[in-house]
Amino acid sequence: MRVMAQMSMIMNLDKCIGCHTCSVTCKQVWTNRTGVEYVWFNNVETKPGVGYPRRYEDQDKWKGGWQRNKRGRLKLRSGGRIKRLATIFNNPDLPVIDDYYEPWTYDYDMLTKAPLSTESPVARPKSLLTGQNMDIKWSGNWDDDLGGSQETAADDPILATMSEHVKMEFENTFMFYLPRICEHCLNPACVAACPSGAMYKREEDGIVLVDEDGCRGWRMCVSACPYKKVYFNHKTGKAEKCTLCYPLIEQGKPTICSETCVGRLRYLGLMLYDADAVLAQASVENEHDLLDAQRACFLDPFDPEVIAAAKAEGMEDDWILAAQNSPIYKLISEYKVALPLHPEYRTMPMVWYIPPLSPVVDVISTTNNDGEDARTLFAAIDKLRIPVEYLAGLFSAGDVVPVESSLRKLAAMRSYMRDINLGRDRDESIPEAVGMTGPEIEAMYRLLAIAKYEDRYVIPKAHVETARELEELACSLDTDGGPGMGGPSVATAAGPYGKTPGMPLNATVDNYNEMVGKGSERTKPTTPGRVNLLNWTGGGVPEGMFPPKASGSPA
Amino acid sequence: MNPLDILLWVAFPYAAAGVFIVGHLLRYRFDQFGWTSRSSQTYENKWLRWGSPMFHYGILMVFGGHIVGLFIPKPWLEFFGVTEHIYHLGATWLGSVAAVLTIAGLAILLIRRRLVARVKLVTTVMDKVMYLFLAGTIAFGTTATVLYQVLGAGYDYRGSISPWIRSLYAFQPDPALMSDVPFFFQLHVLSATMLFLLWPFTRLVHVFSAPLGYFVRPYIVYRSRDGHRGAGSQKARRGWEKSELPKDTREKVGGRR
């Protein structure tokens, strides 16, 4: 057993109103730059719909994720090591920018600089790739709220696997939103496909990252990721992806998308898992068993054996405590209401979803029945094949049983809590019908419906211990080549913003200004004509360090 | 041996080699972020799908041919029974296939770079200079081969150019070997030398990133925040380690595992 911790997310789809605040704030923070205009680390898709990039779920075309071969071993769907290097000169499965959309801006200058005329000036769209006028034909969210879905929805790969009858009727039946970020998989196909070995899974918290210095731009990660959540920066020639806002996570704060979520539908917390079990569990034969296989990888953070093994691996007590308090563990392993997105890709994704009950409730309400009555709801879940089968196509490789079970629990919560809120007697037969108890239902209600901030986000800080913070007071002679050199490893002595004395710092939101200020800024004299030698990095001679040279005399 | 010979066949190659080596070392040390092939596949793939593999496989064959022709001395090959005639046949036929692939591929790539607006706009000045010398080198080399090896009686560069190159590597430069070499071969060599000089400053550095390690590494790569294994933990700095039982006593007490 090799205990590892995974920072994971769960989204409660019933609460998503499709406002795209997560996408916008994420974009402002991470991809508001040249070369990544088309990149959405976080996007919100309307389902049924084609998704972003278009039809990314069609793995017959894009060859993303893993496949189990005849000998029962996992292989990347896009081919093994030899094929990958043989096709390195032209990635055969790479989406081109038109599969996303051609990024554009508007000719805003025209609005203010146009000469006086009888017509209003118009800001025409200009391509950011060619600078030419362009017709906007597609973008990240073109079929939002089923807009234009008469034409496009038939292209939804999940819908395509369902019957004709469903395809014709879905529009009158249901619609929901699916926010997506990188899945930070336990068995990431992008990492496995990277020829340079520049992509990695962090040992501490399982966040999957790209080493931008090691990336050589082969683009294999882009095509290997079945969720198409690794993007190619076409200006720098490097891969970029969702970082799960690790600078925030390291400080115990939620990601930008979670923090700004209007519906408060995102949960963040740790899952402990057995890294040695992942490969075998991802290789089970029947796709319907993949959900249970992934659950089998997770470890019980209350089990003394697991705790001992975790401590032996060097995990600190506060991390184990965080794993015990994790909302993710409750929703996945205790209540079993959360489901993974497309487990059939065999990457073991770690952003899970609570399927939406609202499509079912909506249908009941339109028929003037009681949408909060347990029996009506249970019957509807059994009868309404269309949303259930579609949800199964997303969350359980087509197996309706786990989706039904999850929806029934949500339905039970809905009607059990109504009785309590209306002051009626508690009907204990409702929780029983879904294999839960009254107190369990109430606890789940607190987590899902009340959803306090501190319950939603249980994020332990990364261990940068006090000793290290003290080191930041560092000796100013401790630079590369300086007399105090030899303490920290010389190779890493340079911080991201140039040489810093003392230990290398990790860039975080909180210490950014301090780090940028290191060096030139901080040696600026507070008193004119004087230099604070404590802040001198040893590089260069700041003004005022020596008295002015006497003119005429030799230096 | 006039000064021009020394300049062209001794000073220039050594200067280019120096820039090549030092340039790569410096760029590798200070510009990891810029070290990429800067692929334009996301902009356009219909032309690239054909042009890129043709050019790359072609140029790899050309590279292999040059290694054999320039660095393996003639007597060594003859020892293995590769006579002048066999060598000539092999070099001409295999070389022609490689040349056709390379030239056709490069032509597709250059036309694409000129005609596809998206690709044209991301082409830098350095790219253009590089393409000039790359195309020049290939064109001169092909011209020389066609004129002398295919149409002509055959020129034995293994008696002049190859020993000259090896003389450079042995630090015993012999520029006299190059003075009577046919003009197009000379142009080919000079253009190639210039390309090597420019190499570290162009996207050609991606050649040195051929990811051969991919064959042997495990699929899933784990890395630590600070180079230390352990969830949420951080390797203690010297002097800041936790108090723990010394290692050999711990075994006896039966501490961990």
From TrEMBL, chain A:
Gene3D superfamilies: 3.30.70.20, nitrate reductase domain like
Sequence ranges assigned to domain 4Fe-4S ferredoxin-type in this UniProt record: 7-36, 173-204, 206-235
Keywords linked to the UniProt accession: 4Fe-4S, Electron transport, Iron, Iron-sulfur, Metal-binding, Oxidoreductase, Repeat, Transport
Disordered: annotated segments: 518-555
Any one GO MF annotation of this record: oxidoreductase activity
Predominant localisation class: other
Family matches, as InterPro entries: 4Fe4S_Fe-S-bd, Nitr_red_bet_C, Nitr_red_bet_C_sf, NO3_Rdtase_bsu
Protein name (Swiss-Prot/TrEMBL): Nitrate reductase subunit beta
Organism: Cryobacterium sandaracinum
Name of encoding gene: narH
